[in-house]
Amino acid sequence: MSFSNNTLEQAELYLDGKMTAEELKVFEKEIENNEALQNYIETNKQMRLQYSEDNWGFAKDINQNTKVEELEVLFNSEDTKKTKEAISKASQSYFNTTSKTTKGGKTGKYKIYFTLAMAACITLLVGYFINNKSQTATELYATYSSWEELPSLAERGDSQGTLLYKGEQAFLAKDYKEAKNAFLEAIKASNNFDANTLLYLGIAQLELNEYEAALSNFSKVTKSDSLDASKGYWYTGLTYLKQRAKTKAIKTFELIAANATYYNNDKAKTILEALK
Question: Which tens digit of pLDDT belongs to each residue from 57-102?
């Protein structure tokens, strides 16, 4: 069923919460008596929820499994955020122009059509991701980003040890912001280089999508004379996987695979087979 321009305009005001009390009363009565309008309003409510400015709703409301973790990484990636921001700016520019040039109250109608088109594009993107096996970098990150092999830091009894304990507990609770702050304080309070503290800090930053900071700390580990120096390469490779920087990831894992004594040498070879 098609609706008049006036009805579409009212629907837009209703969904935006911009109706007066009297207008709201009248329109809700109209919705109550019109099943097609009820369906139209409900559909648009759901679309606004799923494709809202701040959330990718469908990525949060489904069961957590490997594929969902891959989707979460994808939709929270910097590339996707930039794409979403670009869509938002383009749509706002379009509607600002349309509101100035369109006569007859049709702006709301065009806005709804544009939203439908954007939703369709995002749906196609999700479908492409699920069905396209070339998205191996994201899949591999979801598979190998396990932090269970990290050693415990909470062994010292001094002030630095207290900070490390605080950071580790926050890390285990997945409160990565709190963990990052505690590790930064611990490093500042110590005059000694500790590779594992830097690894914890780098991984917390990786989880917070602070990629440059994470890579910087992993690099400090690789350049050290620590027995754990090669771990820096492993976590550098994982960072590139999360960023979907395939070429850089391949180079990093090739380095690990070429050195039999490097941390997770066998896993690096497995990842390379999947990436190539």
Answer: 444 444 445 555 555 565 555 556 566 566 655 655 555 555 455 5
Confidence at 40, pLDDT banded by 50, 70, 90: confident
Contact 70, 142 (CB under 8 A): yes
Q: Which of 1, 2, 136 is nearest to 73 (CA)?
A: 136
**In this structure, how many other beta carbons lie within 10 angstroms of the beta carbon of residue 256?**
24
Whose tokens are 């490779």? That residue is: 237
The two structure tokens encoding residue 148: 């269970």
Using CA of residue 11, residue 13, residue 15, residue 20, what is the dihedral sign?
Answer: negative
Q: What global pTM score does this model have?
A: 0.54
Topology annotation, domain 142-275? 1.25.40
Residue ranges, CATH 1.25.40.10, the chain: 142-275
- Sorted by sequence, the CB contacts under 8 Å of residue 211 that are 6+ apart come out as 78, 205, 239, 242, 243
Alpha-carbon 210 to chain mean position: 12
Cα radius of gyration rounded to whole Å, the chain: 25
Q: Are residues 154 and 168 in contact, defined by beta-carbon separation less than 8 angstroms?
A: yes
202-215: burial string, b at 16+ Cβ within 10 Å, e else: bbbbbbeebbeebb
